[in-house]
Amino acid sequence: MNMTRLAQLPLFAGLSEDAQRAIGTAVTEQSFEAGRVVVREGDFAERLTIIDEGTVRVERDGIELAQLGPGATFGEQGVIEKAQRNASVIAHTDVRLMHLEGFDLKRIGHAHPELLERVEQIVAERH
């Protein structure tokens, strides 16, 4: 994991070096080609996803709700509230994503509560 890039993402920017190191060891990366379904509406959200490069479309019942680009997140509500995904996410362009499993998010958040506070703020803003 490129720690400099990680530290530039809005969700992680300004966190302590210890928190960023913990995130860096837990995060996984995945790439999708344009047009591929990243997650499906109705599936269980088990991880928080951060867009590193590219853009995705967020759709509910086939209707586009938003496009998200680098630094944006999705899956946070499902991880925090243990809920099913309320929308599908499709790669609009080729994308590179970072994933933080719910277990790791909570584990790191226990030691670094500012991370969980940021994720909970995103959930509150989207309600």
TrEMBL record:
It comes from freshwater metagenome. This is Unannotated protein. Gene3D superfamilies: Jelly Rolls. Residues 11-126 form the Cyclic nucleotide-binding domain. Signal peptide: none annotated. It holds the Pfam family cNMP_binding. PANTHER family: CYCLIC NUCLEOTIDE-BINDING DOMAIN CONTAINING PROTEIN. InterPro entries: cNMP-bd_dom (IPR000595), cNMP-bd_dom_sf (IPR018490), RmlC-like_jellyroll (IPR014710). PROSITE patterns: CNMP_BINDING_3.
